[in-house]
UniProtKB/TrEMBL annotation:
It comes from Nonomuraea cypriaca. This is Uncharacterized protein.
Length: 103
């Protein structure tokens, strides 16, 4: 999602008008497939309360998590580079995600 939004938010060259939806999607698909983007959106959707819902029992926890991210962020790059992580076959996806954190 971050790669897709980087494309969407990139400034267009001077003199070019706004991009059409088709042009924007074509540019986004140069960095991430629609399937991967849809999967990322679904992952985020699973973490968020339903749209329009005022009944979020985890609102306090979510706010706390956002506040702590600024503290943890500087260490994410080091976490995957300094510690020689290993995993069983079942944990390889988690290990790949950990190594991908800096991106």
């Amino acid at each position: 999602m971050a790669a897709a939004w980087a494309v969407v938010l990139a400034e267009r060259p001077e003199g070019e008008g706004p991009a059409s939806v088709a042009e924007m999607m074509a540019a986004v698909e140069t960095v991430v497939s629609r399937e991967d983007l849809a999967a990322a959106v679904e992952s985020v959707r699973e973490l968020l309360p339903p749209p329009g819902s005022d009944d979020d029992g985890d609102a306090e926890w979510r706010a706390s998590l956002v506040d702590r991210y600024a503290t943890v962020r500087p260490f994410i790059d080091m976490l995957s580079a300094v510690i020689p992580w290993g995993a069983t076959e079942a944990g390889t996806e988690v290990l790949a995600a950990l190594r991908g954190l800096p991106r």
